[in-house]
Design goal:
CATH class of chain A: Mainly Alpha
Number of domains of chain A: 1
Strand content of chain A: under 5%
Shape of chain A: globular
Number of strands of chain A: 2
Radius of gyration of chain A: 18 Å
Oligomer: homodimer
Strand order of the largest sheet of chain A: 1-2
Distance between the termini of chain A: 20 Å
Order of helices and strands of chain A: HHHHEEHHHHHHHHH
CATH topology of chain A: Farnesyl Diphosphate Synthase
Helix content of chain A: over 70%
CATH architecture of chain A: Orthogonal Bundle
Structural class of chain A: mainly alpha
Amino acid sequence: MNFKEAYSQKIELIDNYITFHLDSKYSEVSPELAEAMKYSVLNGGKRLRSILCIEICHMLGGSAEKALPFAAAIEMIHAYSLVHDDLPAMDNSDVRRGMPSCHKKFGEAMGILCGDALLNAAYELISESCEDSSSVQAFKCIAAAAGAKGMIDGQVIDLNVAATNECYLKLLTKLIELKTMALIRAAILTGACIANCDEKIMSDMSEFAYHLGLAFQLRDDFEDIIEDGAQCGDSPNFVNFLGAANAKEMLENHAASAANILKRYDNSEFLSQLHSFLFD
Amino acid sequence: MNFKEAYSQKIELIDNYITFHLDSKYSEVSPELAEAMKYSVLNGGKRLRSILCIEICHMLGGSAEKALPFAAAIEMIHAYSLVHDDLPAMDNSDVRRGMPSCHKKFGEAMGILCGDALLNAAYELISESCEDSSSVQAFKCIAAAAGAKGMIDGQVIDLNVAATNECYLKLLTKLIELKTMALIRAAILTGACIANCDEKIMSDMSEFAYHLGLAFQLRDDFEDIIEDGAQCGDSPNFVNFLGAANAKEMLENHAASAANILKRYDNSEFLSQLHSFLFD
């Protein structure tokens, strides 16, 4: 089986798990709420965060099956953040992955409530999977990344930047660390927590998450430039800030650092292939 | 010390804990986010839910100190739900407890994000307090009540009723059970979980929560009628549905049932006084 087939299978695993979970857990709630939740989370996402979580856990000798509910919870948190970011008072986006955004399809009140429900559903699922101290560690890690010291402050900074048109490299870096990198890092560290690994490995994984997250954002920024010709100001972007040559070098350095950490571990075949797929 | 003084002291205990927690935990986040969070949760609330949580725990022989973070988390969840309910796309309320509502003071985007941050902050606090299986039980209990099978579906039903002007007693009862009673019940059961009580007592507390929650809502509905002269349709209300005499009888029956359960327990002085204060 080639990498793309393997990756598709992993997406299917996550999506089937989320589908089954939502269908069985929320079968009796108001149909439009249940529908909006499924619509917003099962929308053809690449599942990068959840796959990282599961594969890191596998690489470190943990049970991928045990990581699965936490991985699914992370996807629900990611989905909620997109639903709320799309709201008229936020980024006011009518489209998400080529489809009407949640509030565009279900109305603004349902956009707010569906986001709330997905965020809470993530913690409901975690609460049902908290069976030992490593699960509680994973719970802490996810809750810290998703909150006011993580993703949410990232969105606050992003809105401030959009409103004032003022940005500088240090602020952009902070924005990205909070808005994008925090949840990717939490996904990786959650996999490591569930595998019950020691502090040395946890520190390695934290470093891996830093390099991978930054490389991933730089890659995204290059794609935005190609797609939209994004300019500094309306869309703060590393490529605009650093210039294409510097940004490319930075991307390559961080991607290489991430790859070097993976090389130290057995059972990292899939993650190495994923890395090549993203950055080669 | 009379009851009102004792009650005020308990409010102060909760508010001090929440203040200290938010100040120390979120000192480095964007100032407007930190300010909005404090503004929305420290707004002179009666702290009924958190005080029930702590006092039930105390009555059942548990450590009130151990219940405190869970009680504070419940208040943050209650506060987030009010912030989101007040948003223009929801109940569109400019005022909360005689002050500008969160989005009115900080803008709509911050209203959404502050609500998200408070909901997540509740789980961050719980994640840091999950030290044994009784804490995990409390976590499950809170997450279930706050989610799509609880409070959130209650708000969905409430919005549907407001939009269609269609309500009937069974639907009103479901709405109240989800929107109001679920979190009150979770507060009570959380106190019982932290006290590590057995199934028989848990079942008693569940029954107590049912009667107290319903009596509390009926009391609220009478107050609404007196304040606003609320009419069925624009504000579904037990008094309108049942007539004042029937509603009063229902209130008295549920209040009496709740009081009878308390009588079976030692150390229920404060809760009995609270009950008298609310219903006599």
